[in-house]
Design brief:
Elements: E1 3-7, E2 10-12, E3 18-25, E4 34-39, E5 45-51, E6 57-59, E7 67-72, E8 77-82, E9 91-99, E10 101-104, E11 108-112
Parallel strand pairs: 2-11
Antiparallel strand pairs: 1-3, 3-8, 4-5, 4-9, 5-6, 7-8, 9-10, 9-11
């Protein structure tokens, strides 16, 4: 079955960096686009970045120039390199797949605070 497992979250100071990973299994990873979402306390889930099967990328305006989404079709992994982090980036970050329906990982907490 489809499984998505995020890792790499943590506590970081403003201006710092983190790299999130999403390990995917149970489907043909190279054939499908993937995305990162986040949900801040008291807010709805929002799209952060997406990457197509051909590695075309899109970003939310709030993270453009700071975050980089990438994928490794050999390792079945998706990544989110987050630089110049701000307190407003604090959220639970999820990887998402759409394959007939939505699949989500369990999320990884990112906290940006001094």
């Amino acid at each position: 079955q489809v499984r998505l497992v995020e890792s790499g979250g943590g506590l970081v100071q403003p201006g710092g960096s983190l790299k999130l990973s999403c390990a995917a299994s149970g489907f043909t990873f190279a054939n499908l686009g993937m995305s990162w979402y986040r949900q801040a306390p008291g807010k709805g889930r929002e799209l952060v970045a997406s990457i197509s099967r051909t590695a075309t990328t899109n970003y939310a305006d709030s993270v453009k120039g700071r975050f980089i989404i990438s994928r490794d079709n050999v390792k079945n992994m998706m990544y989110l390199q987050m630089n110049s982090l701000k307190p407003e980036d604090t959220a639970v970050y999820y990887c998402r797949l759409f394959l007939s329906r939505e699949y989500w990982g369990q999320g990884t907490q990112v906290t940006v605070s001094s």
